[in-house]
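Hi again,

Forgot to attach this to my earlier email, sorry! This is the prediction with protoporphyrin IX containing FE bound. I've pasted everything inline since the attachment limit keeps bouncing my files.
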Amino acid sequence: MPAQRVAVADEEGSPDAILIRRTMSEIGPVADKVASYFYALLFVRRPDLRVLFPPAMDMQRDRLLKALLTAAEHLDNTPVLVDYLQNLGRGHRKYGTRAEDYPAVGECLIGSLSKYAAAVWDPETEAAWVRAYTTISQVMIDSAAADALRSPAWWHAEVVTHDLRTPDVAILTVRPDQPYPFLAGQYTSIETPWWPRVWRHYSFASAPRSDGLLTFHVKAVPAGWVSNALVHRARPGDVIRLGPPTGSMTVDHTTDSGLLCLGGGTGIAPIKALVEDVAEHGARRPVEVFYGARTDHDLYEIDTMLRLQQSHSWLSVRAIIDQQARLQLPEALRDYGPWNEYDAYLSGPPGMIRSGVDMLRGFGIPSSRIRHDAVEELLVVGN
Ligand SMILES: Cc1cc2nc3c(=O)[nH]c(=O)nc-3n(C[C@H](O)[C@H](O)[C@H](O)COP(=O)(O)OP(=O)(O)OC[C@H]3O[C@@H](n4cnc5c(N)ncnc54)[C@H](O)[C@@H]3O)c2cc1C
Ligand code: HEM
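Structure tokens for the complex follow:
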């Protein structure tokens, strides 16, 4: 689904949404304390649930509670929210979450909110939160149950090849133990054997292949747990775990509009998958790829992209090399436009996506035709 921004004025919406937003403004300044208290409460009441979570909880502290609060806040935006929650529920199967665990999380949420939003907390507010949590958790539970009928909770996958392309970027090919259906442009979660229960997202770098193998491009980030394990430790024969495929940065094959693709760093991985997908569908729609990196050296996949360009007359690949690609890219886009008839696809570091979206809007591409993934933000739902 294309990115959509949900704008809600403070006193608009259902009575429950208004009460929920009041709680949110109250806890805003002490969000960290609410998160710590929430997990402390959860693990004191349900110590058995601690093993589902990673040993270090810094990232998680933020994400579970943030998602819950944001989902509650946007309760009135049903279709967008339901889509997000269904994905989330499906994704929770790999953590070992069971339907019967949801009430405990809800009780601890309400316990934490009532403590830190005491000034505005009353029985009506509590009832609004109970209704919101029940709705949210039911969507997640139902979606996990439906998914269990057709898919495993996770896949094991054996590393088949490991190619260190630069000192910190590796291309890995893995063989899943069961068929793994996905669409070009999507991403998955990976857990390595060295950091159990620590999952990170990686994009598929190829469209689905007839041999069932999957490819990933991974850049080791300084002190990064999973990326360093995949780049510097993983070797053929190692077995990783994969979560389900997700993401909405996929090609709409019902139209033949052109594709404008901006890929920065390893963000070129899903862009390459999209190009392969267009090629396989045989449609001769224009695809314009701008591949950005800080130095020549970081354009580790330029040869592959140029080979694709040679084989397909509808494809153009342009490299943007600059420490300040943000300045060069707008100029290049201006030179090669107009883009108002194109669908846009962005993939790369969050800063690049944010500035890229603004830039593309400035070139007349409506938000509904700009696709990208940034799971951290529920406000840009569908990612
Ligand atoms: C939808 C999506 C798709 C993604 N696809 C890919 C992909 O195809 N290839 C790929 O390599 N990565 C991809 N990522 C990023 C990936 O999920 C991890 O965030 C990244 O590998 C770092 O994980 P880590 O466990 O190594 O680092 P962590 O242990 O999570 O982080 C360690 C430290 O590094 C910092 N850090 C995190 N990311 C970066 C970064 N990019 N640059 C500099 N510092 C950073 C953190 O803030 C932290 O301080 C994707 C992310 C998303 C949301
Ligand atoms: C409505 C309820 C819930 C919401 C909105 C929610 C939301 C989230 C979000 C957004 C994440 C971040 C990673 C991801 O996207 O998968 C997450 C991770 C996680 N959640 Fe939930 N969650 C809910 C209920 C539960 C329950 C009931 C459990 C089981 C005890 C649980 C266990 C976990 C675990 C183990 C992780 C992984 C931690 C990590 O990777 O750091 N969640 N949750």
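Confidence is low (pLDDT under 50) at residues 1-9, 377-383. DSSP finds eleven helices and 13 strands in the chain.

That should be everything now.

G.
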